[in-house]
Amino acid sequence: MTEIPVASDRQSAVRLLACIDAGSVPVTDESWGADVVAILRSQSRLQALDFWMRNPDYLANELLNEFEKTKDRVLIRLVQQIFDSREPDLRRLPMIRYHFGAFEPLDNPLAILRASDLIRVQREGVPGQVREHLYLLTHRGRASMNELAAAAPEIAWYKDRAAVVATLAGEVGGKALKDRQYLQQEYASTELKHLIAPVTDRVRDRLELIQKGLAA
Fold first, then answer.
1. How many CA within 13 A on the CB side of residue 61?
2. Pick from 92, 105, 102, 65: nearest CA to 188
3. pLDDT band at 7 (very low <50, low <70, confident <90, very high)
4. Are 87 and 154 in contact, with CB atoms under 8 Å apart?
5. For residue range 85-110, what is the model confidence (pLDDT) as tens digits?
6. In the 3-class helix/strand/coil scheme, how is the chain assigned residue by residue?
7. Where does the pLDDT of residue 128 fall: very low under 50, low under 70, confident under 90, or very high at 90 and above?
């Protein structure tokens, strides 16, 4: 039986901090607190960003989609780098598909970030009817992400890759991002409560086909 890779809570905390840092929007006043520098709205957006972090083959496929729109060859080089460094094999942390898409409980890694006041979490709504989770990035959280990335290449990868994911996502909300991810048949056809299937071979073939076209 193939062993399914699992991240520790601390690894997940770093990955989520990178997502929140890169995928949030700046706070320009003190309405959320004097030391809050940015905010990421909705758990569904955070889960969607995390999906691309955890599934480099799906990320690579989206980058190829962007290339077909923009013809920016930097995107092709980035996809080639993803495959050359074997990210789809070494970095993949599969997620389970539930009714609303890829999901994994975030309580434990977020608790690590909250305990150090790197982020704060607020909820809009009333108990039992939470409309939205708000992830508030503190000055300490941003500074810690930068310091950790500067000190360790392994953590720098999280910061760099989260920047790519956030650029790809833009300011789109979580539902729209999950709808975009559902466009991949392997994702959409995965049975509920099963691990979402990889797309590595298909995306590698797609990359090679595009490269042949560019070389012709």
1. 22
2. 102
3. confident
4. no
5. 999 999 999 999 998 889 899 999 99
6. CCCCCCCCHHHHHHHHHHHHHHHCEECCCCCCCCCEEEEEECHHHHHHHHHHHHCHHHHHHHHHHHHHHHCCHHHHHHHHHHHHCCHHHHCCCCCEEECCEEECCCHHHHHHHHHCCCEEEEEEEECCEEEEEEEEEEHHHHHHHHHHHHHCHHHHHHHHHHHHHHHHHCCCCHHHHHHHHHCCHHHHCCCCCCECCCCHHHHHHHHHHHHHHHHC
7. low
Residue 1: is its pLDDT beyond 50? no
For strands 119-126 and 25-26, give the pairing: unpaired
Q: Calculate the average pLDDT of the chain.
A: 93
Percent of the chain with pLDDT over 70: 95
Q: Which two tokens stand for residue 52?
A: 């691309």
